[in-house]
Amino acid sequence: MASSRAEGDSQEPINEQAVANKFAAMRSELNQIYSKITELEMDVSEHSLVINAIQPLDPSRRCFRMIGGVLVERTIKEVLPAVQRNKEGIEEVITRLNEALERKKKEISDFEAKYKIRIRKNDGEEKEDGARKEGTAQGVLVGPAGGSE
């Protein structure tokens, strides 16, 4: 009985359903990390666009910056270093998230190996995916080729 308590304390899954649930939770965490990295990469891209747009301008020229939902007036000389620091900070966070992503991938692959998990797709599911892709492509509306003039 003591050994079963020790196993329960170490958070080991007890049955197949528990293993499947833990695996699904791990995959969900992995997807959340991917999503956050993508979101932050978009932010870095936006910061780069702003930096490239205001760098060649006169440093004494006034510009506006959104800080915590409030639009403030500053000069380019004040704003440019702040935007560059923000961009660098976001890039550092992306680096840390990529490291966490690699750790999570390794954790998932170890878990798969330990419990001999195999992900399989049925033929029916693949056909449904194809149907869904076609459905999204059909959602695009295009006007007449000649146009109404």
Entry summary:
This protein is mainly α. The protein has helices at residues 2-9, 16-54, 76-115, 123-137, and strands at 62-67, 70-75. The protein is built from four helices and two strands.
Description:
By secondary structure, this protein is mainly α. It has a domain of 102 residues: Helix Hairpins. The chain is built from 4 helices and 2 strands, in the order ααββαα. α2 packs antiparallel against α3. It is rod-shaped and about 65 Å long.
Strand content: 5-15%
Decide which structural class fits the backbone.
Answer: mainly alpha
Q: What is the first-to-last residue Cα distance?
A: 84 Å
Order of helices and strands: HHEEHH
**Uncertain ranges:** 1-9, 125-143
Largest beta-sheet details: 2 strands, antiparallel
Report the mean per-residue pLDDT as an integer: 82
CATH architecture annotation name of the domain at 15-116:
Orthogonal Bundle
Radius of gyration: 25 Å
Number of helices: 4
Text of the CATH class of the domain at 15-116: Mainly Alpha
Spatial strand order of the main sheet = 1-2
Shape: rod-shaped
Family: Belongs to the prefoldin subunit beta family.
Keywords: Chaperone, Coiled coil
Coiled coil: 87-114
Organism: Rubus argutus (Southern blackberry)
Give descriptors for this structure.
4 helices, PFD2, mainly alpha, disordered N terminus, Prefoldin, Helix Hairpins, 149 residues, rod-shaped
Architecture blueprint of SSEs:
Elements (H helix, E strand, L loop, with lengths): L1 H8 L6 H39 L7 E6 L2 E6 H40 L7 H15 L12
Antiparallel strand pairs: 1-2
InterPro entries: PFD2 (IPR027235), PFD_beta-like (IPR002777), Prefoldin (IPR009053)
GO molecular function: unfolded protein binding
Family: Belongs to the prefoldin subunit beta family.
